[in-house]
Specification:
Mean pLDDT: 93
Bound molecules: protoporphyrin IX containing FE, copper (II) ion
Helix content: over 70%
Length: about 575
C-alpha cells in the first residue's frame, strides 16, 4: 500500500510528464516531496489536538486543563505546528521549487532521505521530552528561555532537528548549482528563485539555531557552568524569528506557484518580484529585534535602528508581493479573457470552489489584513507596549502562521494529492468547503485573541485566565472574548479535521486523478499582448483599501497608546 502510494509510472530515465502542468518530474524529487508532505500532515494532527485542548483551557467557561497540562500541550502545540508542520512542508517546497519546476533530478537524494529520517527522529525525541517533562524541568514552550531549564532531551532534539533540516536542504542547493553550471545564461524561474531565497534565509536561521542550542545543551548537561539569559534571548530569536522568515518566504513562493497553477496568474514584473525577494534577504533578519522590544539589556538605539528603520526594507518587500501577486492574477486572467472587462470580474470568476485556489486566496488576503497589519504595528517600538505579552501577540501570529501560512500549505497539499499522488479528492464537497471554514473560524479566533489582549490586557501563556492570583486584578470583562475564541477554535479544529479526512481519505480511497489542464492555463483572445499590458485596476483598488485600513489602525493604536499615558498621569 505505502509503496503504491509513493510510486508513479516513470520512464526509463526516471522522469514522467505531469499531465496538468507539463512539468517533467523525476522520481528522485517526487518521492521526498511525498514523504515530507505526509510527515507534515502527521505533525498537523498532533499539533491540532493540542490546539483544541489549549483553546478549551483559555475559554475559561470550559477550562479543560490544569496548569501543568496546559503548558505541556502548549509546548506540543507550538513545536508540532510552528516547527514540524512548517519545516517538513518547507523542505517539500524547496524540492518542488527546485528540481520539479526546473525539470531536473534531485542530486544526492540519499541526503533528502537521511535528512527526513533525522528530522523525524528528532521530532519524536522532542515530543517525548515534552511529554515526559517533570519538575525541576520546565516545559520549553516555543522559546525555551534559559535559565529556565527544560529536559536535556529537548535541547538535544532541537539540535538534531536543525542538523536534519540542513542535511535535507543541501540537495536543493546542489540542484540550483548544477542548473547554473549547465545553463549559466538562463535566469531561474521566479518560483525557483523564491525557493532559493527561502533556502538561504533558512540556512541563516538554522545556523542561528545551532549557535543557540548547542551551548544551551552543554549548559543543561553541566558541561558549561553558566548561561547568560540576555545572550540566550538574543541568540534564540535568530532562529525564533528566522523560522518565521522561512515561513513567510516559502508561503509567498507558494502564492506565486498556486495562483499560476489554479487560476492562470502570471508574473507582471519579474524584476520587481525578484527585487522584493532580495530585499528580504538583506533586511528581514533585523525584524528579529521586535521580539526584544521590552528587553532591559538592549539599548533603545539598537532596537530603533532594527525595528523602526531597517525592518521597513522587509515590510516594503511584503507590500510589493502583496501588490504583485493579485496584480499577476488579475492581469493573467484578463489576458486569458476570464471575468470580462469589469473591475473585479477576474476575481469573482476565479475558481473559489477549488480548495487549492480558495486556500491560497484566503491565505493572501487574511495574512495581509490580520497578520501583516498587526505585525507592522506591534513591530514598532512604542506600539509594542500596547500588546507586549498579552493574548494579542498570539492573535497576531495566528493571523500569520495559523491562518496565512497554514492555509497556503494546505492549498499546496491539495494539489500534491492530485498531481503527485494521482488521487482525486474524496468527500469532494467537504474539500471545497474546508478552506472557507478554516479561514473564517481561525480569523475569528485570532481577532478575539487580539481584542482580549489589547482591550482587556489578557495575558498570553496563562491557564488561569480570570484573575492574577494574589491580586485583585480580574479579567472577567474579557469573558465574552474568550468564549468567541473558544467557539471559533472548535470550528477551526473541525475544519482541520476535515482537511485530514480529505487528505488521508484521498490517499487511501481516492479514485485515480483524471484532472486535465485547468482552463485558465490556455490563452484567451487577447493573449498575444504582454501581461503587464492588461488592466490591474481591481488590484489597485484593493491595495488602496488595504493601505487605508493599515493607516486607520496605525492611528487607532496611537490613540489607544495616548489613552494609556493618561493612566500614568
Ligand atoms: C485550530 C487551530 C489553532 C488554534 C485553535 C490555536 C490556538 C492557540 C491558543 C489558544 C494558544 C495559546 C495562547 C496563549 O495562552 O498564550 C496558541 C498558542 C500558539 N499557537 Fe496556536 N492555534 C491553532 C493553530 C496554530 C498553528 C497552525 C500554528 C503554527 C503554524 C500555531 C502556533 C502557535 C504558537 C507558536 C503558539 C505559542 C506557543 C508559546 O507561547 O510558546 N497555532 N494557539
Ligand atoms: Cu519575529
Amino acid at each position: 500500500m505505502a509503496i503504491g502510494l509513493i510510486e508513479n509510472d516513470y520512464g526509463a530515465d526516471g522522469f514522467r510528464t505531469c499531465r496538468v502542468t507539463g512539468l517533467r518530474i523525476h522520481r528522485s524529487a517526487e518521492v521526498p516531496v511525498k514523504m515530507f508532505g505526509l510527515t507534515a500532515v502527521v505533525a498537523l494532527i498532533i499539533g491540532g489536538i493540542a490546539a483544541l485542548l489549549v483553546a478549551l483551557t483559555r475559554w475559561e467557561a470550559v477550562g479543560i486543563l490544569g496548569a501543568a497540562d496546559f503548558y505541556k500541550f502548549l509546548s506540543l502545540h507550538a513545536w508540532n505546528l510552528l516547527i514540524f508542520w512548517m519545516v517538513f512542508m518547507e523542505i517539500a517546497i524547496l524540492y518542488v521549487g527546485g528540481p520539479i519546476v526546473l525539470g531536473r533530478k534531485l542530486p544526492a537524494s540519499w541526503m533528502a532521505n537521511t535528512g527526513w529520517a533525522v528530522m523525524l527522529g528528532a521530532a519524536l525525541l522532542i515530543d517525548y521530552a515534552i511529554w515526559t517533562t517533570a519538575p525541576p524541568d520546565n516545559q520549553p514552550l516555543l522559546t525555551s528561555y534559559a535559565p529556565l531549564q527544560a529536559s536535556p532531551l529537548f535541547y538535544l532534539g532541537a539540535i538534531v532537528f536543525i542538523l536534519g533540516a540542513v542535511i535535507a536542504a543541501l540537495p536543493f542547493f546542489f540542484c540550483i548549482w548544477q542548473q547554473k553550471r549547465e545553463e549559466p545564461g538562463k535566469t531561474l524561474p521566479l518560483v525557483t528563485f523564491g525557493a532559493f531565497i527561502t533556502g538561504i534565509i533558512a540556512v541563516e536561521a538554522l545556523v542561528g539555531g545551532l549557535v543557540t542550542y548547542v551551548p544551551t545543551y552543554l549548559w543543561r548537561i553541566g558541561v558549561v557552568a553558566h548561561i547568560d539569559a540576555a545572550w540566550y534571548r538574543h541568540m534564540f530569536w535568530i532562529i525564533g524569528h528566522g523560522s518565521q522568515q522561512i515561513n513567510l518566504a516559502a508561503m509567498i513562493t507558494v502564492w506565486y506557484f498556486m495562483t499560476w497553477l489554479t487560476a492562470g496568474a502570471e508574473v507582471v514584473s519579474e524584476k520587481i518580484s525578484r527585487g522584493a525577494f532580495i530585499l528580504y534577504l538583506f533586511f528581514i533578519n533585523m525584524g528579529a529585534a521586535h521580539h526584544l522590544m521590552a528587553d532591559p539589556v538592549l539599548s533603545s538605539g539598537w532596537k530603533m535602528w532594527n525595528t523602526s528603520y531597517a525592518v521597513y526594507g522587509a515590510v516594503l518587500a511584503s507590500l510589493i508581493h502583496a501588490f504583485a501577486i493579485p496584480a499577476g492574477l488579475e492581469a493573467g486572467r484578463r489576458k486569458r479573457g476570464l471575468g470580462g472587462d469589469t473591475w473585479f470580474g477576474w476575481l469573482r470568476t476565479a475558481p473559489w470552489h477549488d480548495p487549492g485556489f480558495s486556500a491560497t486566496a484566503w491565505s493572501i488576503i487574511l495574512f495581509g489584513f490580520l497578520g501583516g497589519i498587526t505585525g507592522v504595528l506591534m513591530g514598532q517600538m512604542q506600539l509594542n507596549t500596547l500588546r507586549h505579552n498579552t493574548l494579542a501577540v498570539p492573535g497576531h501570529f495566528h493571523g500569520t502562521v495559523a491562518v496565512g501560512t497554514t492555509l497556503a500549505f494546505m492549498g499546496l497539499l491539495y494539489y500534491v494529492i492530485r498531481l503527485f499522488f494521482n488521487k482525486e479528492w474524496v468527500l469532494d464537497w467537504f474539500a471545497r468547503l474546508q478552506p472557507h471554514l478554516y479561514a473564517l473560524a481561525m480569523s475569528i479566533a485570532a481577532m478575539a485573541m487580539m481584542e482580549a489582549g489589547i482591550v482587556y490586557g489578557a495575558p498570553r501563556r496563562d491557564p488561569v485566565t480570570m484573575s492574577i492570583p494574589g491580586t485583585d486584578f480580574s479579567f472577567a470583562a474579557a469573558g465574552p472574548m474568550y468564549a468567541i475564541m473558544g467557539v471559533a477554535a472548535v470550528l477551526a479544529v473541525a475544519a482541520g479535521v476535515i482537511f485530514i479526512l480529505v487528505a488521508v481519505g484521498s490517499l487511501l480511497f481516492g479514485k485515480p486523478a483524471r484532472m486535465r489542464v485547468p482552463v485558465p492555463l490556455s490563452l484567451g483572445a487577447s493573449g498575444d499582448r504582454p501581461v503587464h499590458d492588461h488592466s490591474m485596476r481591481g488590484t489597485f483598488a484593493m491595495v488602496g483599501f488595504f493601505l487605508a485600513v493599515m493607516a486607520l489602525f496605525y492611528g487607532l493604536d496611537w490613540m489607544w497608546l495616548s489613552r494609556l499615558w493618561e493612566f500614568g498621569g
